[in-house]
Design goal:
Blueprint lengths: L7 H12 L2 H5 L1 H6 L5 H28 L4 H5 L5 H34 L3 H16 L2 H29 L20 H25 L4 H26 L3 H6 L3 H9 L1 H27 L8 H16 L3 H37 L1
């Protein structure tokens, strides 16, 4: 994008779109990281919302000062070129892994709702992501501009309808088991922030550089962070309606929607599909920023997407339980470096005055 076209709302929807993937919109991640801990999960969700909002602004500031969306430069303090390169490519690998999660989610969605083989949904998501990412950031921002506000409103209304229907608790004595790599509410909340920051860096940085002004970027990033916090809390309240039911399903909110009515279930299936598509696109775009320009770039993008689809056949629930928290542990290191770079950059900025 040569012209700075993004309004505050555009920046906000890019922010939300980077995170609102299958794990978030389906309630699977919200359940795994917060819901399993009961009332303590609410505290964890609040920690997530606040820290995530602050981290979004740190990314924005680093990108603004450095005038780049290069993930290595935004993260690494001190300007060490070799470390910047290593971190940049490491981040690209992590974002490619998130693409694996999203293709698995596409398969799980169409399997749970229609009984299709797991590979069907994965193939559809893979093809759509390739078609969008090859169009670069301009096409991504244009797609998000139209679909994200509709998805957010539809998600809010669905959660309100489900909670208002007062779902019956299926098993009061069900054993609720946290993921072994996120065993308590505090660790889980920090891991969820660090896991999601991976997806946020490239999109927030690029949105900042393409915002109409710095003020626009500030307002947009704030709007995006606040809105994500509200959505997370609504989904958490929904999945805690019936713990045993939420524990059992790959996509709990979809299950609740189906319990209210089949029509609402189909509507939420569509919401989830586009949420998966948006997160897969934003994460995979971050990965493609590390592929060098050239005649073979599109072929490399297609090959990487196909590999992600194949790996995603391992199953969505297994990935969220084990892979997502492990990515979160790596993300903690990234956040520490990100904040250290923020301090260094702002200190240097003051010394130049």
């Amino acid at each position: 994008m040569n012209d700075k076209k993004l309004s505050a709302l555009n920046v906000a929807v890019m922010y939300v779109g980077a995170i609102m993937g299958a794990g978030f919109a389906s309630g699977r991640e919200t359940w795994q990281f917060f819901g399993v801990f009961g009332y303590k999960g609410i505290i964890g969700a609040l920690i997530f919302a606040v820290v995530f909002l602050i981290t979004g602004h740190v990314i924005r500031c680093n990108a603004k000062i450095l005038k780049t969306n290069d993930m290595g430069k935004i993260i690494v303090p001190g300007g060490n070129k070799k470390l910047e390169s290593f971190v940049g490519y490491f981040m690209a690998a992590i974002l490619a892994l998130v693409m694996v999660i999203m293709t698995a989610a596409g398969g799980a969605l169409l399997n749970q709702q229609f009984g299709f083989n797991y590979y069907v949904g994965g193939i559809v998501i893979t093809v759509l992501v390739i078609a969008t990412v090859i169009g670069d950031f301009e096409r991504i921002s244009r797609v998000f501009k139209y679909i994200m506000p509709v998805l957010c409103i539809a998600m809010i209304l669905t959660c309100i309808v489900v909670v208002g229907s007062k779902p019956e608790v299926t098993d009061h004595n069900a054993e609720i088991v946290p993921s072994p790599v996120a065993p308590n509410w505090f660790i889980a909340s920090i891991l969820y922030v660090s896991y999601n920051v991976m997806a946020l860096i490239s999109i927030v940085a690029t949105s900042t550089l393409n915002a109409m002004s710095d003020k626009t970027a500030v307002i947009g990033t704030t709007m995006g962070g606040v809105f994500l916090g509200i959505l997370a809390m609504l989904i958490l309240i929904t999945v805690q309606c019936d713990p045993a039911f939420s524990q059992m399903l790959d996509m709990p909110v979809l299950g609740y929607a189906d319990r209210v009515s089949k029509a609402l279930g189909y509507v939420y299936t569509l919401i989830l599909f586009f949420a998966i598509y948006s997160a897969a696109t934003s994460n995979f775009y971050g990965f493609t920023t590390k592929i060098k320009e050239g005649p073979n770039k599109n072929k490399k993008i297609i090959a990487a997407a196909v590999i992600s689809f194949i790996l995603g056949l391992v199953g969505f629930k297994n990935i969220v339980s084990y892979v997502s928290p492990l990515i979160g542990y790596f993300g903690i290191i990234i956040i520490i470096m990100l904040f250290a770079n923020y301090i260094v950059l702002n200190k240097d900025k003051k010394n130049l005055r």
